[in-house]
Amino acid sequence: MVILSDWLAAQIDKTDAEPVYRQLLSLMQQAILSGRLAPGAKLPSSRTLAGDLGIARNTVLHVYDQLSAEGYVLSTTGSGTYVADTRPDTAAVGPRAPRATEDADAPAAPAAPAAPSSCPRGDMSVRGQRLIDEAGVSARQWGAFMPGVPDVAEFPARTWSRLQSRLWKSASHDLLTYAPGGGYRPLRRALSDYLRVARSVRCSPDQIIITTGIHQSIDLTVRLLADHGDRAWVEEPCYWGARSVLQASGIKLAPIPVDAEGLNPRDPDLRHPPRMALVTPSHQYPLGMVMSLARRRTLLEYARQHKVWIIEDDYDSEFRYGSRPLASLQGLDESDRVIYVGSLGKLLFPGLRIGYMVVPERLAATFRTAVAELYREGQLMQQAVLAEFIMDGYLTSHVRRMRTLYGERRQLLIDAVTRHFGDALPVMGDEAGLHFVLGLPESSDDREIAAAAYDAGVIVRPLASYYLGKQQRKGLLTGYACVPHENIDPAFATLARVIERHAFGKRAA
């Protein structure tokens, strides 16, 4: 017992911010799990241990009580406290089975060191490892020229705060519990009115399901309408995030090329109807073209005939420059085959994490039940604030103001491209959205250029990361929305030097 007391005394730091009780409990647990205190060993009395450690006896009593409650020790009145036998039952566990690629008779090879912040490969499922290997998420989410990110500094935070304060003052229990299936009804009603006017979406409030964003909307759709191993058409190239959601759900992806009129399935594709098709018809991501009316009608008729579900990802169509926003594909659908998904993140601020989906009326009750069953949604207070924000007209005025602001920044960036490169590098897909694609010479490596730009302090995304098959074009996704006017020229000058060095082999400009 003296040895235990000495060991504990050497480990406990009474000047540490962590309470002595927590330190002693952790040390006793460690001693039992490591075998320092063997099963059946008798612990010193609380009075003796407290005296040896110079701490209050009540502290030791509390530790012993907690150890007993967690099964580390057994206490018998009049006899004392003993270490419980918590060793695994080896008969139940059985010997470790060798891996399929491992020689059971060979000595174990030393494990290769895992990459920082990653799981060892042996711990991951096949689809989990694929998800991590192909992840497109960036460590930085803000700055020149991060594509797809709005200028959150321009968000009317005071207006939002005022609406939020007013709601909190009279907050009822209904706003502080789980969200009802489908989300806060006044928000669903406000969104249905907004979508009918702004996006020509045909819907009622009952058809709207509130989610945390497009990723969750796609995930819910796949869980309800597809099975593991089903095929899905995806645009080639397409948004890596949506692609990851589909693959993680066990969906087999069939990349369909896009041209100037959008999705362009060939005869071999048409002979094998998919379970679903994921499209961005109003502003193809990432290339920016618009699906023609003829292609839209063809896709809808094909979906009707072959019972294909269409997921329409309408991620930033409100920001269109030089013309009014285009009507949705869903508004043309007469057969209820389109699931329309959108998000408020690019209109307001990404951290809001409120999205929505519009589902056919016959599926609405099913989706409401599923979203509550799988995700136990909340954030009703935020949904209530957003409903007020929309109904009071603030969303419409904010979108109108930001469309003008982003249009100015878009033009400044295009002018910078022209000054540095003339017409040597094409600008593609700049008619709408928050980014365009800056074309590169076919001999260049856009991944290498994006990495070099990142090291130089500029964020762009290589077009290569959006292709599932062989890359057809070289380019950089270049965002302008979150870059203040005065920062565009100097930031692009940095990017231009990187491009000159890596794409043309010239001197740094």
UniProtKB/TrEMBL annotation:
Pfam families the record matches: Aminotran_1_2 (PF00155), GntR (PF00392)
Organism: Paraburkholderia bannensis
Similarity-based family: In the C-terminal section; belongs to the class-I pyridoxal-phosphate-dependent aminotransferase family.
Chain intervals for the UniProt region annotation (Disordered): 85-123
Keyword Nucleotide-binding appears in the UniProt entry: no
Sample GO molecular function, one term: transaminase activity
The entry's keywords: Aminotransferase, DNA-binding, Pyridoxal phosphate, Transcription, Transcription regulation, Transferase
Chain ranges of the HTH gntR-type domain: 18-86
UniProt xrefs under CDD domains: AAT_like, WHTH_GntR
Domain of life: Bacteria
Biased composition (Low complexity): 106-116
Stated name of the protein: GntR family transcriptional regulator/MocR family aminotransferase
